[in-house]
Amino acid sequence: MIAVSAVTLALAGAVLALIVGGAGWALYVGLTTRAAARAAGEGAARDAAVLAQAPAQAAIVRADGRIDLPRRVIDWLGLSVEPRYLTDLTRHDEGLVPADAEALAQDVAAAQRAGRPFQMAVQARGSARKLMITGARAPEAALAPGGVVLWFADATESEDVIARLAADRAEATAAFDALSGLIEAAPMPMWYRDDDMALAMVNSAYVAAVEARDARDAIDRALELVEGSGMGGPLANAAIARDTDQPQMMAVPATIGGARRMLRIHDVPLPGGGVAGYAVDIEDLEQARGGIKRFGEAQRAMLDRLSAGVAQFSADRSLTFCNQPFRRIFAMKDEWLRDRPEFDRVLERMREAGRVPEVRDFPTWKAERREWFVSTEGGEEEQWHLSGGVHLRVVAQPLPDGGLLTIFEDRTEQVQLASARDTLLRVRTATFDNLYEALGVFAADGRLQIWNQKFRLLWGFDEALLNTHPRIDALAKAAADRLENPQRAGAMGDLIRSATVDRVQRGGRFVFADGRHFEFAAVPLPDGNALFTMIDVTASRRVERALTDRNEALEAADQVKTAFVATMSYELRTPLTSIKGFAEMLHAGYAGELSESGTAYAEAILASVERLSVLVDDVLDLTQDDAAGRRAAVDLELLAGAAVETVAHAARARGVELAVDVLGSAGSVAGDPERLREAVEHLLRHAIDGTRTGGRVLLHIDGTAKAARIVVSDDGEGMTADAAARAFDRFAQTRIARGSERALGLGLPLAKRFVEAHGGTIALVSEPGHGTLVTIELPRG
């Protein structure tokens, strides 16, 4: 019993030991696990904290549309409620813009189905923040089978930087384009060489100078602007500029456009490498310098021929030029002037010759004249009264280079001329009195100042009345009885007031009681007065009336003739219709089968009837009042096709080539399609008739925004100048180049009538042996 107990105790102790050991091990494992869990938790918290502050935040969209969105992204989107599904990213007036939300849903669906990654930029409503979303299918470790991982990143600053860089790039591109355009538009050749001195860029002026096809051709062929661009030439000059980093310049000859020119070549090293160059044509500059020199010589030669004395002083006040009158006025010898005396010495020599005014203090007077060089008034003018009755007008003009130009005009003769003034006045009065016209000069206050005898006798004025210098109103009252209509006398006062006050020239016509006609006019004079003139036009008035009566008679006769032609044309239609009908019946065999010659005769009758019908229609068109017809939009290209189709048979029959050239600018005009087509047909028929076999007729149509132009030209025999002048006359005959007579018919007159009825113009130019050209211009409106 005791033994069993011992064994049992031993077993119990062993079991207890195992239990204690197992508990210790479990305690150890538990403590180890808890430490590991604590470390893992701290790591997870640390990772969560880092992830929360990361520039990109991850969200998971599950297969059923649920979304796990970080709080930070919720704040970025401005959502007040945490979204559960992808569709909750936009609601009411918060969250994503609806268009962005729809595009995001489509990209997420595509990533779920095909695993296609995507990237897009979105923006929350009511916020300036820009978000960049990068999406891809979620990995298996994300515990979201069929889901999509969305990475949200705040791209506001980067977008701003991108926008700023884009703006800078656009500005730089615009500046580069402007610079390139400036270089391209420069009138002088410009180029750029790389570090190897090879041409890399040239402008249009360079291309034109070297006679290349384009810039690429000039670069590929290495066409140099100047011959001999090797060692010591312009190419070496560019290399020196590159190596020394200093601009270089040299003048070299070159052949441009077949002419020898002198060029000044500039080579400028660029900071980024390479050398820019440009060439300045100094040929014109040299010629201009030569021209200026020749101009100066011509000017001095001209000044030598002036009656006034001229002296020019340089900035150092030395005499550089004086003409012959100056030497003569001041008695100066050439030997003394060759030393280029100074301004003060010249004044002293003038004083010695007695050619300056008498003054008490000559040094002070001379110092005052030295101020002429620096005068700010733009010039000085003085009157010098010298002994012996000599009077000089002196003008001193400072020059831009600091010099002085002086002019000495001898006005002594003007005093003598003043004494002859009375004689000239008497001569003027005698001339005034003997003019054929009746003349009177009125002052600004309307008073008569000067008159001639024709004026007094014509109106029958009393000499005593005129000597009182009466006003125009009093003269008009006294002259009223002389006129057929006395009330017309008041027009004299109106004319004088218009000429003196308004400074406007006006005229009219008076009819005297005795039947005489006078044209009158009031002309403003430079001194403010008015000249009233009258001339007898009775004879010309009678001739004018006779011509008017004759013209009216001619117009009446023309109307009678037109009416007669129109009536005859209508009357001719009936027999023509009968002739045509019977001829067609004969030709068709209704009266029995015709022989071959009979058929030919019937066809000739039909052709003649057709031609006569056309002529009758043309005559009717020419006599009708309505030449414009109805108005519609007329497509000129279709009109040209219709006209050409009508005359094509005639052109083929004569063996004439008919060409058509309708440009895109032809467009359309407003008018009567039939009348305009007939006008073009008439011109084409006239051109075909006047062209030899094998010749060519061209119909060309173009236009501008304001008008369309139709041109018909041929290389036929042309017309004489007299025939061309009468080409548009009705029923005119013209002589073509070889001297035979040919009837123009009514084609050209009808074309002119139709064109002018549409507000257009028509012109014909022809030269014997060189063809004819007719131009029509039609307004668009």
UniProtKB/TrEMBL annotation:
SUPFAM superfamilies: ATPase domain of HSP90 chaperone/DNA topoisomerase II/histidine kinase, Homodimeric domain of signal transducing histidine kinase, PYP-like sensor domain (PAS domain). Its EC number is 2.7.13.3. Residues 567-781 form the Histidine kinase domain. InterPro entries: HATPase_C_sf, HATPase_dom, His_kinase_dom, HisK_dim/P_dom, HisK_dim/P_sf, PAS-like_dom_sf, Sensor_HK_Regulatory, Sig_transdc_His_kin-like_C. It catalyses: ATP + protein L-histidine = ADP + protein N-phospho-L-histidine. Keywords: Kinase, Phosphoprotein, Transferase, Two-component regulatory system. PROSITE patterns: HIS_KIN (PS50109). It is an enzyme of class 2 (transferase). It holds the Pfam family HisKA. This is histidine kinase.
